[in-house]
Amino acid sequence: xxxxxxxxxxxxxxxxxxxxxxxIALFGNIITSERANALLxxxxxxxxxxxDVKNMDYISPFAAQDVxxxxxxHWLGTDxxxxxVFAGIVSGTxxxxxxxxxxxxxxxxxxxxMGLIAGYYGNNRFKLYWIGxxxxxxMIFSFIFYLxxxxxxxxxxxxxxxxxxxxxxxxxxxxxILKKWNPxxxxxxxxxxxxxxxxxxxxxxVPSILWLLGLVAVTGRMSIIGLxxxxxxxxxxxxxxxxxxxVIRVRQLEYVETAQALGFSDFRILIxxxxxxxxxxxxxxxxxxxxxxxxxxxxxxFSGLGLPIxxxxxxxxxxxxxxxxxxxxxxxxxxxxxxxxxxxFNRIGEAMSER
Amino acid sequence: xxxxxxxxxxxxxxxxxxISIIVFVLSKxxxxxxxxxxxxxxxxxxxxxISEEIYQQTAHKxxxxxxxxxxxxxxxxxxxxxxxxxxxSERTAVENLIKQYGNxxxxxxxxxxxxxxLLKIPEQDSLNLRNxxxxxxxxxxxxxxxxxxxxxxxxxxxKAVFNDEIKGISAxxxxxxxxxxxxxxxxxxxxxxxxxxxYHHWIAGFLTGNFGLSKNGQTIANKISRxxxxxxxxxxxxxxxxxxxxxxxxxxxxxxKNKRSGKWLMKGLFAVYSxxxxxxxxxxxxxxxxxxxxMKIFPSAGLSDLHTEDSFFIFFFENIGRLILPVLCMIIHxxxxxxxxxxxxxxxxxxxxxxRTAKAKGLSFNKILKYHVFRNALFPxxxxxxxxxxxxxTGSFMVEYIFNIKGMGRVAFEAxxxxxxxxxxxxxxxxxxxxxxxxLISDLLYKWANPRVExx
Lengths: 355, 456
Prior knowledge:
Low-confidence stretches of chain A: none
Largest sheet of chain A: 2 strands, antiparallel
Largest sheet of chain B: 2 strands, antiparallel
Helix content of chain A: 55-70%
Radius of gyration of chain A: 26 Å
Shape of chain B: elongated
Number of strands of chain B: 2
Strand content of chain A: under 5%
Number of strands of chain A: 2
Largest interface: A-B, 46 and 51 residues
Strand content of chain B: under 5%
Oligomer: heterodimer
Mean pLDDT of chain B: 82
Strand order of the largest sheet of chain B: 1-2
Structural class of chain A: mainly alpha
Structural class of chain B: mainly alpha
């Protein structure tokens, strides 16, 4: 709470504008709609996809428009098909926030998990018996195997969960039996840090646009969910690196050692003692990451790689402006929308990093 | 030091290998039939029917009649030699049938019966038998197959041709459905294919410098050398320029942090930091390169490549004017990043004890900044280099796309669009190598700037 309070006091306007944007994203369908609803007339009497046949072919906001009243005027102009640009910008808010926040949400979860494991266990702090290693390897393998079957062939989810529980119980029983007569008491360390950092390097080595190009080539078309997953997939590496560094710093502090000496479980130490102390830099990174994801989404959709062009987003509005060099309003206004949103998240990130 | 560099270079190998595997397998999962694409390019007559023999020859020439990787892990329902079905459409049909029923031997019998019938159908095919049978080979939907089978048996009964064969096919299809072994789908198996596989051949060639040919017959080196040099030049120019512009700004804002000029400059930098660089490029392209708005300052987009046989330097000097605006668009974001970072770290350093000592010694403010604070504030700039390198590659892709410059990004876009995989592999591996080298250089510079750092 104190933390949130601090953000609010130092970035008051950003937080307010963010609340406003979220409001727009939630109620965009009511704000821009062709039909009047029962409660109140829509602010913009057009929906993002409705075509105004009388005002087709890029009508400038300052040009004479063929509209009966000021209420029906296209305040920010129209595009080639006569779609209202203002309505497009309002409905694009939802996509932008969804992609930015959703994508970085996935990145945050993945990055925290990987970073905590890599930082806390390092290369030799997590040891397993040979048998345990083999059993757990088998368990992870079969989880992945049945998950791919589930995804590919539409296995009944109930059966999937039953299989998972069955495997888990089998492994647990097997482990407890084998441990008793296991003659090889040697343990081997599992190099979590090396493995995770190698994976991070692989993901980071290829520029994210190239990853996306490959994905688009395989899947054909992007959906919002696909884009969110993609941003999560490329974004987690940065957070994992950051978390690992912070955990290594915190791990040798006295209070962690005390907690270990008291015999707390690793899970408890990680979640209750380490996580709260490393959260601030992570949230800063997430805030900047959201800003970058919104930029990326806009560029991808603009270049025809992201969401389908028919879907009205800020990027597709910019894309529609490519055909006509006169239509400055199709470039300027969506750009301002992107700029404001990105600035908000950057400012919030900055406010968090102020001491 | 040398040991460290060698060790890091050695670490590149597994990373690049893993990337190559991912990219190769991804490229094999793309929709579309590579053999059909190849045949359509090579033959002018766009004949719809390609004989089995030609198809297999082309598949053999392209090297795709082999297993993809050293091993696969699938369920027991899938046979080991699925890759021997050379036609991709047939193979997918079989795969989908296996996913539904899990009994490969019955499905194979069904396909064999189909093919046997296909061979017996005469050239003069007035009853549309051939078309229907070919459809059977590539369908996997129960409804559609049943429909075609009904159609076929009706024809066979009416005209009394191939009655037995078509009955046999129907029976074998019924067999598939009756003796489905779906439980096999839940048993994992492991198949080892040995070294005679597509990936092995590709990577062996790749490592010995044989990158294969582009789709239009050009060698990859030919196709990529000029785009690569354009991207490299643009990125290098951008790195140098952004540091040269950003460092004075950063020092100025740090020195004047309490004055109005410094404060406003910082706010301006923050705004620039949030500016979408591709949007700036779009705006610049619209307002500064076209006569419509009366501000045609820069030449229009794209590079002139009239004289492609010219040496690179002539080409470069011919186009230097056209590169100005793209590079400017590339650097605005890095400038803001670097300047803000430098300002932050300089302000941090100004609060430290050694600055106070220097002040107590009676050094002037400028001298303290120049000789003491600035040197110590440099470290974050060096670490930033590692971050900015991939940023510039991506940024150069954006700018290339918007300004229609045929650099690496543009080549990658087009190659993936045309499924010209040999080009894609090279572009990807080169980008990855550049990023890794950029990281290594930034680590080395870090060590050079701060000898206390221990490299591990």
